[in-house]
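Write out the bound-state structure for zinc ion.
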Amino acid sequence: MHELSIAASIVEAVTESAAAYPGARVQQVRLRVGALASVVEDSLQFCWEITVEGTPLQGSQLVVNIVPVVAHCAACGKDGELASLQSFRCPHCGEPVTDLRQGRELEIESIEIDEVPVPK
Ligand SMILES: [Zn+2]
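---
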């Protein structure tokens, strides 16, 4: 499953970052996912639950921010957000667009951790 490997690579990356804070629990991971990244959020959430088991991310929340597709139009020179993934046309002038500027992202936006209080 596509989402399972995505979840696994995110968990791996976050675990590495969290290693700088021994004992800390990851509370929340925010992702930026382009509308063209073909990620099914429900499926990713399901895979997340499985993947975080037994890691410092166990019990953490995955927040998926879907990034709209933005294309640059050669005809009118503007960047525009595509209204639909079925129609790759400039929202300003209606010409077909092929120069995508945004929408394929799949990246970690932020990680929220709960630092363990330092014993006195
Ligand atoms: Zn245009």
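---
The CA atoms of residues 32 and 65 lie 5 Å apart.
The mean pLDDT is 93.
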